[in-house]
Amino acid sequence: MIHLGVDLHRTFCYVTALDANGKVLHQGKINNERVTIERYLAGWQEPLRAVFEACSFWPAFVEAVEGKVAELYMVHPQRVKAIASAKLKNDRVDSLTLAHLLRADLLPQAWMADRETRQRRTRARTRIELGRMRTRLKNRVHALLHQQGLRAPSSDVFGKQGRVWLEQAPLAAAEREALQAYLRLLDSCEEQIRESQRRLLQASGNDDRVRWLSSIPGIGEYGANIILAEIGDITRFDRKALFSFAGLVPRVRESADKSWYGPITRAGSARLRWMMVEAAVTAVRTSPGARRFFERLCRRKPRHVARVALARKLLGAVYALLRDGVCFDEQVFATM
Fold first, then answer.
1. Phi and psi for 216 in degrees, rounded to 5?
2. I want to staple 218 with a disulfide (CB 3.0 to 4.6 A). Which of 79, 167, 207, 279 is the partner?
3. How confident is the model at residue 292 (pLDDT cuts 50, 70, 90)?
4. How many Cα neighbours within 13 Å face the side chain of 98?
């Protein structure tokens, strides 16, 4: 068995090959083109095991090597302490360390999302980024009006009445040109958002998990797709691990008999955390159980702390629904 430690980069990867005894058989750079990687792997006569660190290029690398190596592993860069804390750190040392860890079966493995999950993530994250672009454009329009001392008569300056007012607003030539440019971009962005959302929902139309999650107060089909895209395979988590993955658990410092609990870690998936907090805001208005939980916490904690606690509770419901394959039950949620 040949053990390959692969240090991935944007245009090349540095590979170290070890035999079963730890002898270095090859070290060097390989171009990241798929044909080059396939040719390199085909040159080995013995079965191959390979390990690489997670990076933006990893899905393409997996596509190139899948089926050509007997075993393939991905590790989290921050968890490879032998690399992260090394005094001498370069491509050769990193790939050699990965190969030795692979040979000794000491890898801190990371989960590799399957093709379906990667496709869902791409669609969901595209929709999120388009929404953020729309928000930035609206903020630029508000900033422009504020600089000119103008206040819209309607609450929604981008609604039908607001757009009529914008067309007639007293602006100088330069400001009028900027406003028209922002509005054209905003209209285009709105069209792209509608199309992106349509494709996202269409691709998940037959997924029962979307139906289960959409039954949770504050979560619709769009939110359900974001949650599924970020979580992937629910069986890789238990309840507490999912909370940690979303960064919705407090920081803890313990020494002897003293413990200190701080704000939430904000580690893991920022998108999942954002989605659950957004769901909590809506759930307070739509779910009696969520409202009672939130109001009870607000009596002794700040509102933002209570909101995060409700987001964590809703994430517990997400875990239970995906684990058991059922829809949301208000009475069960109240007892969680």
1. -75, 135
2. 279
3. very high
4. 32
Bridge pairing between strands 12-18 and 2-8: antiparallel
End-to-end CA distance of the chain: 49
Specify whether the CB–CB gap between 159 and 178 falls below 8 A: no
Count of C-beta atoms within a 10 Å radius of residue 290: 25
Alpha carbon distance 310, 308 (integer Å): 5
The number of residues in the chain equals: 336
The Cβ of residue 12 has, within 10 Å, a number of other Cβ atoms equal to 16
For 88-122, what is each residue's pLDDT tens digit? 788 999 999 999 999 999 888 899 999 999 999 99
SS3 at position 165 = helix
DSSP code for 112 = P
Q: What is the pTM of this model?
A: 0.88
Q: Where are the beta strands (DSSP E) in 201-324?
A: 250-255, 258-264
C-alpha distances in angstroms, 312 versus 23, 209, 278? 49, 19, 12
Structure confidence by residue, pLDDT tens digits, 9-36: 988 999 999 999 999 999 999 998 889 9
Q: Is the pLDDT of residue 285 over 70?
A: yes
Residue 206: how many CB atoms within 10 A of its CB? 7
Supply 62's token pair. Answer: 């997996």
Q: Which residues of 293-303 are buried (b: 16+ CB within 10 A; e: fewer)?
A: bbeebeeeeee
Q: Which two tokens stand for residue 225?
A: 């797709």
pLDDT of 179-216, one tens digit each? 999 999 999 999 999 999 999 999 988 899 999 999 99
Q: In this model, does residue 167 exceed pLDDT 90?
A: yes
Nearest to 279 by CA among 242, 204, 226: 226
| CB contact set of 212 (below 8 Å; sequence gap of 6+) | 321, 322, 325, 326, 327, 328
Beta bridge pairs of residue 50: 4, 72
Choose among 192, 228, 208: nearest CA to 118. Answer: 228
